[in-house]
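At this stage, I needed to go through a protein sequence along with its fold in token form, as given directly below:
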Amino acid sequence: MSFLDRLDAIQQKKQSRLCVGLDPDPARFPSFLLGDHSLAASAMRFNAAIIEATAPFACAFKLNLAFYENFGREGPRVIDETLDRLPADTLAIADGKRADIGNSARFYAAATFKRHAFDACTISPYMGRDAVASFLDYEDKAVFVLARTTNASADALQKLEAGNGSERQPIYEHVAEQVSEWGADANSTVGLVAGATDPGALGRLRATCPELPFLVPGIGAQGGSVDDVLDAATPGPTLVNSSRSILYAYDEEYSRDFADAAREAARSFRDRLWEEG
């Protein structure tokens, strides 16, 4: 079954477009989780509780690899143990924004899809198709290519216009057209990362790529609007990610209830993203 078919089946079963970002930051953990444990062990306890609490409402979990690389040699183990805890009716996304050429790209892809067995990953398009090609060879996997991101300085590059005469368009839209071409003969499903903080661009990207899956970060802590995302990105296949607004929804005074707070935040996002869509 293709990634897109699995995504659709899971979304219909769980009535959810929610992707929960698993970005374990020890500086924000409830203090009782730290104790005498290593940071990696504390992160695993944190992730386990978050997964159990939020899995009923999530169709995917996204691991930002930088947070795991921070744990040094224990990082790969935390990734594997986290993936082992994900229920079968969820998809796992590696958020590493990888991009390189030749053997480097080949081994990045193998680490993502074979060593850790993620279902999907994020990729930077700046080096062109040959930096992405190794990731496109894996059947039943997905590659989300950065198009319109949520960081403050993204406009300096992504909104630059390129082309000739009346054919000029923003770089992010050109990326989307290129990605559509890359996906035409790929074994993997190809999609876009398109942020919630620029609903105008999100809508233009959906008009350009009506059938591609979108991974949409930026709601919650980054200020993106659920209503704007749904208006711009649906009815095409859409995963909407929230990380901090779910992971750290708890009140410091009630930190032992952090998983319950995450559960309620995930439930609220799930309901809004589905019922309002």
Observations:
- The first helix runs from residue 3 to 14.
- The two ends are 26 Å apart (CA to CA).
- The beta strands are 18-22, 60-64, 91-98, 120-123, 142-148, 161-162, 169-170, 189-194, 214-216, 238-242.
- The chain has a mean pLDDT of 94.
